[in-house]
Amino acid sequence: MVLLLAIVTGLLGGLTWARWRKQPYRSPNLQHLWLAFVAFLPQFVVIFLPVTREILPDWLAAVLLIASQIMLLVFAWMNRHMIGMVILLCGAALNFTVMTANGGFMPINPQTASRLIPEEVLRDFPTGSRVGAKDILLHPQDTHFEWLADRFLPPIWFPYQVAFSLGDVFIALGIFWLLAKPQSSVQFTQKGISI
Amino acid sequence: MKNTFASLVFFAQKINRQHIQLALVILSLVALVLGTGAPLEGGGVGR
User: Residue A144 belongs to what domain range?
Assistant: First the structure.
């Protein structure tokens, strides 16, 4: 939800900027769109399709999540000529690293999870069990790359509570930039990077 | 009935290739963001 909000605000920003300049909005010039849809299919099966979500064992869900993320990373890499996509690619790589290092799921420590899950419900989730769509409950000392895990929270008074990772921040910034400034490109040359 | 059909045709004519392209790009970005991001939201617990 929080990442979809970044898409909506980025798109609104881009449309407003285009109208301000009295030019038509031009969408990002993405290549190999089909790959994004194919890559998302395994996650659709694991997370969004109720029938398969209930019956798939955790190990298979982890394999499908990792396979899907590899394909999405390839898609982002193929479109790295845009600044927003480079930022997003960094975030995706960070999330991929921490998830792969922790059995295919995003680690979250019980203390962070307690801000999102009622105490009595959390008691039913032993350490190492899956919570939410992609997360796994792990103590910080048992977590690889703990600094990349879902460890950030909004202020307690904020009405919408969500735990997010450093990678999620990069992904949100990247997608916002991609849609707000779709024509800003980056070139990789032998001398370095030119924007 | 005739009016409804006429307005449908009118809207269909307004949808051009660029609109379809934009819709596909946004859908692919939604897939990319949902697929690579992993926030845990309050209330989204369990499987």
Answer: 2-22+83-184
